[in-house]
Batch of 3 targets.
Target 1
Amino acid sequence: MPDDFDYCETLVREGDKDRFVAALFAPRQHRRSLYALYAFNIELARVRELAREPMPGEIRLQWWRDVLGGLRTGEAGPVASALITTVARYRLPVDVLLEMIEARSFDLYDDPMGSLSELEAYADKTSSALMTLAAQIINDGQETGVAEPARHAGIAYAIAGLLTALPLHAASRQLYIPLDLIERHGARPDNVFARNGTPGLKVALAELRDVARRHLSQLTIADIPQVLVPAFLPAALAAPMLKRQERDVDPFSPSPLPLWRRQWLLWRAARHPRRIVDR
């Protein structure tokens, strides 16, 4: 009979194929726990979609805080149960998970991302934190010392993903492109929501791609022990995604990397980790 971890594996296979494939390169004994962590991330990422309004979304995020605080043990679902087991087994820092929850509260509202520093902080507490926690799982619960490379890898991957998701976020009036960056180039949030790729907006998006590349350039693969590379594999998709976006004439009609190519890039980076920072 499928257990909580099987449920998490299925959820990640269907909802986050990049991390699902990346986890396949981790030692077998740690994969189920990686899927529990990644399933938790999926649950947080889709709170807005499921709740539809900020208040129910905040209640759901508070529920997750209660789970991590040990207040919901009798009513935890499969993802929560698997996460609790994983946190205990690998001594994952609960404060980092709580910061992930706190960062996701931004998703519930239509307020724009105010500045580049705010975007980087958001990506650091979500995408980068996920890589740091995944590395600790692969390292059997021991400290890894990879917070700095995880920060750069996570931010680059997050920015590439947010740029790919620009049409989806525009349709729901969410603005992850920093407001100060947009306004500096003479564009407005309404240009995004109207899917109007003005020259100023395109320059702002190009600058944001450069920010992602700068983070990749600061990522030193030698700082990542070979055994921990699977935690960082999603970052191998950042540069190809950014290149693909540059070729798109209309930023609101992107041509995402096909699934087969994403899987091949992950496989290649697993064999040759230096490919993670290909720019």
Target 2
Amino acid sequence: MQPQPLDLLHLGRERVIGSYLLETPEGPALFDCGPATCVPVLKGRLRERGLELHDVRHLLLSHIHLDHAGAAGVLVRDHPELQVHVSPVGAPHLIDPGRLEQSARRLYGDEFDTLWGELAPVPQENVRETSDRVLGLECFPSPGHASHHVCYVDGDRTLYAGDAAGVRIQPSRFVLPPTPPPEFDLEVWESTLDELERRDPARLALIHFGVAEDPGAHLAELRRRLRAWTALVGDGASEEEFEASATEELGEDAPPYEQAMPLWQSYAGLARYWEKRRTRA
């Protein structure tokens, strides 16, 4: 059965943040869960499929950014038997999200609570560190967007990509590189794209948003734009110039992309990347 995203209607807008329901040998599982502000909608989407939250046995996380994993602690509090799978690097930040929340509040300011809601801890006994196999799926590191990012591949060659395959608000064909600070790294991400291509997926399940049935063309477009945007900022483009260029590229597709990955954040991550490179030089 082809995967279909559960639209979490972030801030009431369609096709910005999704989640995926998977069947595993140990019962239903979710891939990513969105932020706490989307929990009521997530529960409603499960009911549309004949399930309650308590029927879901496992939560597979790509990484711990709030648009992908922010609701994890709230879900476990409501469903204490839920097992949360996350990379070994990300696990401590689920158990104690204090530093993560502090960093995010600095970034988002007064908008934090409206965007993301509560960031609750996940009890240590509910956290399962990922290895190369998780519930029958292949799992592998996929850094570049974030150092702790992992992807999953099922037996039908669906690659559950998190942010490693970029942002593409279907049916748009525009593939946007999400490059937030502080961990974006072009060379590392290019190596991850090599890994994604080597696995020859049949499709890409994107959190932002939908299933891409043309993975080869999609990944090639992501690689091209990653290089172009990194070079633009490296050549001295200001934040205003970068945002103007990206907005012109996006055209009428801009609003949902801006909500899924604000361009000011992309610029900040690209600028931080170049700052670190120049410091090392």
Target 3
Amino acid sequence: MLLAQQAELQKLTAEVRALKGVLASRPVAAAPVAPAPAAPPRTSKATYASPVAQPAAVAPPAVPGVPATATPRARHDEGRLILKVTPSPAISRVVRNATAARTAINTALANLTAARAPHPRLGVSGVGLTRSGNVVVFAMPGLTAVDLEPHSALIASAFLPQEAAFAGAARDSVWYKAVIPDAIPPDPSQPLPSSQVLQAEVEDYVQYRFSWAAPPIWLTPAGRVAEQGTGSVLLSFSCEEDLEYVLRNGVFLFGRALRVRRFRDSGRPRPCSNCCSLEHSA
């Protein structure tokens, strides 16, 4: 039986060798080669400048516009009476001592009442200075500048030095402000044009009459204007129609048509440097 198994094993070995020989004699099939990509059609010179069609851009969804807020009126206070004076160090000293100034004014007004019913007694709560150097008198709560204005000369004489040269009073009014953000002076290396020159430039080239609350002023310091060549100019009107006109039409300044935008006033109160009160600014 062992001999039979050996014979069978030899037979299988011979068959395996024969099969290997057959496989080795067969040619190996080459891997399929992908055809080379066809060259793009030659573009004629006539189409070199033709724009390439692009897919249409999808517009972003429309965002509802935020309505512009009304012109800020933070600096308008119906209780403020402006005393027109000639600025001087003496006036600054008097206003700095606000308590004494208030006492002097209220003493002078002690026996007076407002002309309107129910005729409240007149009085002030504080004093201050404007940026231009005029004096501000703040009416007591319940009163307005309309109540104090007929007695402005008495108020001024009660605490202001004679050198103040009191020249009348005015009630605080609304200012409608716009700013020219890119005003270019004729020669940035020279001193900036004055407020009078700016006002004349704005007025002379339009068929429109402006009601100025104050002359135009430069908001950008002269050194920065000289460095960058442009600056911002503030326009202050006493009439809202004037503001809407310049916002709609722009202005001409030194031969250039310039855009104008609404000025946003921070309206932050200036506290007293001595007692931090918001009733006065000095």
